[in-house]
Design goal:
The protein folds into 2 domains: about 40 residues; about 90 residues, K homology (KH) domain (GMP Synthetase, Chain A, domain 3). It is about 30% helix and about 25% strand. It contains 3 helices and 7 strands; from the N terminus they run E-E-E-H-E-E-H-H-E-E. Pfam families: OsmC.
Length: about 150
C-alpha cells in the first residue's frame, strides 16, 4: 500500500489548486465560480478518483479482455436527508464485449467485482469510511471523525 500526500493551495477566493509530489495539478472551485474555470468541484474529484481507480485496477484484473474502449461513468445522487454527504454513487462500466464470448464477459465481470471487493482503495474507502483527522497550525487536533 502506498502513502499519499497532496498539497492544496489557495489561488484566490473559492479557487484552489491541488498538487502531488510528481508535479500534477488540478484546479478546485465551485461549479458556479465563473472566474475559476475550468475546474473540478471536490465531489467531482471524488467521483473521478472512483472512476480512475476502477480503470487502473481493471487494467490488471481484466487484462485478458480487450478494453481500450472502456468508458467508466460515475454519478452521484444526494438528497437533503443525506446531511451534506453524497447519498449514492453509481459506477457504470460501458464496454462492447465480443458478442457470444461468455469467457470475456465472465472475466470482465469478475474484474469489476474484484475491483470493488478487494483492489480499488478509493472504492473500498468510500464504502467503508476512513478516519479523518484535522490538525491546526500548531499541530493540535481540531477534529477527529470516522
Amino acid at each position: 500500500m502506498a502513502d499519499y500526500r497532496i498539497e492544496t493551495v489557495r489561488n484566490g477566493e473559492r479557487d484552489w489548486t491541488a498538487r502531488n509530489d510528481r508535479g500534477a495539478e488540478v484546479r478546485i472551485a465551485p461549479a458556479d465560480s465563473a472566474g475559476a474555470q475550468p475546474s473540478f468541484t471536490p465531489v467531482e474529484l471524488l467521483l473521478a478518483a472512483l472512476g480512475g481507480c476502477g480503470g487502473l485496477v481493471l487494467d490488471r484484473t481484466a487484462r485478458t479482455v480487450p478494453h481500450d474502449d472502456l468508458r467508466i461513468v460515475v454519478e452521484s445522487v444526494s438528497r437533503p436527508e443525506d446531511d451534506g454527504r453524497v447519498g449514492r454513487v453509481r459506477i457504470s462500466y460501458e464496454l462492447e464485449l465480443p458478442e457470444g464470448d461468455t469467457a470475456a464477459a465472465d472475466t470482465f465481470e469478475r474484474g469489476v467485482r474484484l475491483t470493488h471487493e478487494k483492489y480499488c482503495t478509493v472504492s473500498r474507502t468510500v464504502e467503508h469510511g476512513a478516519r479523518v483527522e484535522a490538525l491546526g497550525p500548531d499541530g493540535t487536533m481540531l477534529f477527529l471523525g470516522g
